[in-house]
Amino acid sequence: MIPAQHELMRERTAVLVDDPTNRLPRTALRVELGESVGIALLERDLVPEVVATRDVVAFVRGNERDGTPIAMEKVAAGVGADQLLYLDVAEFSLVDRNGSPRPTATIWVRVLDIEGRTRTFPGPEEPRGVEVTAQLR
Q1: Which residue of 8, 30, 60, 123 has the fewest CB atoms within a 10 Å radius of its CB?
Q2: In a 3-state reduction of DSSP, which class is residue 106?
Q3: Higher confidence at residue 64 or residue 86?
Q4: Is 105 within 8 Å of 134 (Cβ atoms)?
């Protein structure tokens, strides 16, 4: 387990898994990743409520126009979330360099306070977010 670097607000939270370069082969994987994060947040009692990731994805799909990304704040507000965990998929692979099965994902993480209109994590010194790499063994 990775030690916490930020304490989330106790607010209704949405998890948005963004994959602008289509690293994940299916949208269902984005939904599964977001749902897994949401369940982990609830099981650890870090937030009181999590918006279903499928609802977040449906909102984004219904509101994007001509491939223009929708603002993260608009997504959160559209699904009734007060806080947004934005997970930007940077890399994803099912095998390592030697061809052995080893699913690995690298994701940039940001947290936004929607009502306060601020990014609460990380600070401005890391504009893209904090890089997190996870690997199944």
Answers
A1: 123
A2: strand
A3: 86
A4: yes
CA distances from 76 to 13, 68, 88, 94, 104 (A): 8, 17, 15, 30, 27
Q: In which element (H, E) is residue 94 found?
A: strand 83-95
Region 118-137: mean pLDDT is 89
- Pair type for strands 101-113 and 118-121: antiparallel
The phi and psi torsions of 19 (rounded to 5 degrees) equal -135, 65
Does position 137 have pLDDT exceeding 70, yes or no? no
At 120, the pLDDT band (50, 70, 90 cuts) reads very high
Give the whole-angstrom CA distance, residue 26 versus residue 23.
9
95 vs 90: CA distance, rounded Å: 16
Query: With contact defined as beta carbons under 8 Å apart, do 90 and 131 qualify?
Result: yes
Helix (H, G, I), strand (E, B) or coil at 95: strand
Q: What is the pLDDT of residues 96-107, one digit of tens each?
A: 888 888 888 899
